[in-house]
Amino acid sequence: MTRYGMVIDLDRCMGCRACMEACKVENATPESSFFMYVFRFEQGEYPASRVSFLPRPCMHCDNAPCVKVCPVGARYKRDDGIVATDWDRCIGCRYCEVACPYGVNSFNWKDPEEAQYLDWNDPVITTAGDGSIPPYRNPALDGAYGPEQRKIAGGGHAQGVMEKCTFCVHRVEDGLDPACAQTCPVRALMFGDLDDPDSAPARALRERESFTLLEEAGTEPRVHYVGGTPPAEDARQVDAPEVRV
Amino acid sequence: MATHNATLPTHAGRSPSAWLLVVIVLVALVGVGIYAYAHEVSEGMAVTGLRNIGPMGGATWGLYITFVVYFVGLSFAGISTAALIRLARIERLRPISRMAELLTVVSLVLAGLAIIADLGQPLRGIINLFRYARPQSPFFGTFTLVISGYLFASLVYLYLDGRRDAWLTEQTAERHRWFYRFWAAGYRDTQAERERHDRATLWLAIAIVPLLVTAHSTLGFVFGLQVGRPGWFSALQAPAFVILAGVSGLGMLAIIVAAVRRWLHREEELGAEIFKWLSSALMILLLTYLYLVVVELLTNLYTGSSRERDVMSELLFGDYAWIYWAAVGGFVVALVLLVVRVALPSLRSAVWPVVAAGALVNLGAIGKRYLIVVPSQTKGTLLPYDEGSYTPAWTEFALVIGLISLGVLAYMLFTRYFPIVELPEPEAAERKEAR
What we know:
The complex is a heterodimer of chains A (245) and B (435). Chain A has 245 residues and is α+β, with helices and mostly antiparallel strands. Helices cover 18% and strands 18% of the residues of chain A. Chain A has a single domain, classed as 2-Layer Sandwich (Alpha-Beta Plaits), CATH 3.30.70. In chain A, the strands form 4 sheets. Chain A has a 4-stranded mixed sheet with strand order 8-1-10-9. Chain B has 435 residues and is mainly alpha-helical. Chain B is built from 15 helices and no strands. At the A-B interface, strand 2, helix 2, helix 3, strand 6 and strand 11 of A face helix 4 and helix 5 of B.
């Protein structure tokens, strides 16, 4: 059976944040949302300090705290392991967000169309775009997926609902890699079926030492890291992305 | 003091002349709250101070959830006092029974409204919470047990307990007789009816007590079961929640009893006996709660993980220290007031120390609820996110003040039209005449 997961090679990651960019374009997320987030952080005391990078998608935990607490079953675990958010059912109580130890959830604080990076109603932009406004929005994001046929793809759907990394379920169901993995210029993000011994992530897990984030929380993440070490407790973020409403 | 006694139904509360003025002010405050909510619904929750945990360095639960927890806590003491009075047949406390029941009903309604205010999709919430209910979620307990089951049980209790008085009031009331007739619903206070009511309220009281403890524990579990938030994951959350619920509820009940006694001139019925009981019960619960506070402090500071210690030191010395010490200080001062009241003969029958203690523990409870909800989100991230902060926006303050005003208003209107203190047994002759 398919068991989707991701292995992230920290030896390769150079913190370029192209994956964050690709994710935003693919999923049309509002300004306040980063389904993929790359930490650039410093640890240790100068002069023994060093800067490291850590991409942080949703961990798609096997024992997901967010799935447990959702009062309406909008957050659920698919058979293939993807932790999905049904944005058509979510009531916006934000319990999943407080339950998640990784901080991967992003709430739509206002109308997502207004929270995009450009004001598409601005006349300057309308004329500059030569009538091609509003911009292209991937219709696949509004579709229904999986045997359950639920609306779980993409972001920027409605005000007052929760969204998070979907592992680009709309691409994965078409046999494609998630946008972040597709874009990474150094192939640090390896996506695939962990049960298939020939897949890149399964091979990496077999051949190299790996860890998961916050193992002690017992969430059993589906996202593994090879190379590098988990962030130490004194790790402090440098160059944090500006996240606005 | 001028009163409108003539226009009031028999034995219903008399009202001071400032009554109308207070009502107008409260209605205005409720209006501001409604405006704030409309603003929030149309503009999105971006108008609140709430933000995402982690990348945005915010708190996603804030003042609304603080007050959901506080309001549900208030409701605890109300119906449990009423049930206790019924179960143990504490006759001397009967005059405060209806006040306690009403406190529960009003504060539960406020808690429900505060939850709705906190939802990003309120309309969907009202439908989906029932349509797709998942008992595995600790919220299930909050929504079903607390807001539905327990509110319903309390309403039935209030209704049954009030039928006799509704019937008595209907006999003499000049206005709104339909209301009393509707409430009494054919009740005639015969021997058989009395016995039937007595049995029904007994079983209801027996059923309500376990429901109470379960319901209030689930609200503690909302926080206590979350391993991902330092400062939340603790077996102490549920019991501490129930105890603090009792403290704040009893404190509020003391304030209400004192207010009714003062403004509706019920010095005789609401005497020293009642305040003695209220203050002793409050004292015991307060001591228990302070004990839990110390236990929590020691557990988290002694060997707890560094993340737990970080959140705890933020509470003790960091951004949240002023709230923490004000709340704990309030509890201690309240306890001292209650002890001094017992110790000094000149104060033994004074009402003000109990009222002051009630006010202090309620402010303290709001502070403690805030400290449970917020710091674990802003200061308790486990990955190297920047430290967060949360400052409630005017919409949140306006909405919460609107909710509190709505509660006070509902309470005032009820006391205006229905006897808040159980009516005395009418003289036999008078009864015959009334019939």
